[in-house]
Amino acid sequence: MTTHPPWYYNDVQQVGTDFEDVTQVEAYDRNQPSSSAEKSQKLVTQLGILEGQSIIDFGCGTGTFAIQAAIAGAHVYAIDVSHSMLTFSQQKAQLANVSSRIELHHSGFLTYEHTAAPVDVIVTQAALHHLPDFWKMAAFLRIANMLKPDGIFYLWDTVFSFHPTEYQTRINEWIQRVAKPPCEGWTTDDFETHVREEYTTFGWILERMLTDAGFTIEMANYVTPEYAEYVCRK
Ligand SMILES: C[S@@+](CC[C@H](N)C(=O)[O-])C[C@H]1O[C@@H](n2cnc3c(N)ncnc32)[C@H](O)[C@@H]1O
User: Fold this and answer.
1) Is residue 199 part of a domain?
2) Residue nearest to atom 22 of ligand 1 (CA)
3) Which of 54, 78, 82, 100 could disulfide-link 60, Cβ–Cβ 3.0 to 4.6 Å?
4) Pocket lining: 157 vs ligand 1, CB cutoff 6 Å
5) CATH number of residue 141's parent domain
6) How many separate domains does the chain show?
């Protein structure tokens, strides 16, 4: 086991929303339209995930993507810092009859030690914003090391692409546009917590980090001024 220096970031802590809280986990599985089984299945196809490939899913949450990749025949290392998320994923994987192809690890971007062969694809969705920018860079370097040459890294997250001078109006407009009443989805309070306590960054910063980590960005899709996806090749 690697011993980290005293200045190393503790990435097993919960930042912002507490995903150790079982009610948050169940709400997450209901509320997160970005990671439905249908969207995950499409992403599996888009990334060309095939039987026999190996995949890492960082911040796997309730396991929706990991399950779809396993259904396609891949071996999935599903990594999360929340025991509650991992328990939920395990139950869903058993129901989908793919638990033998999913290895769950209680670990994070900065602490997971991949001891098997380098993998074909690494995916992370809606999880990287839990790390401050300096540690995102460290995470990208670690991810590059876990991938085969030519391997694919797919990143989807909250990413700001508006001009920095507009941040006050853009954040207010975003929250007004997307927040839902309690019990119908993420609330104003959830989005305010996200902006205040989590670490969404600008796209131009992420692009420079990805290229400095040795990736070629094959696709950068700024879906809205607050969300983006990247397909990168090592
Ligand atoms: C918003 S959920 C996204 C889950 C899933 N990827 C999806 O798209 O539905 C974020 C997940 O990232 C996990 N997480 C937070 N910090 C992490 C870290 N440093 N390393 C790995 N996972 C982390 C949380 O526990 C949570 O399960």
Assistant:
1) yes
2) 59
3) 78
4) no
5) 3.40.50.150
6) 1
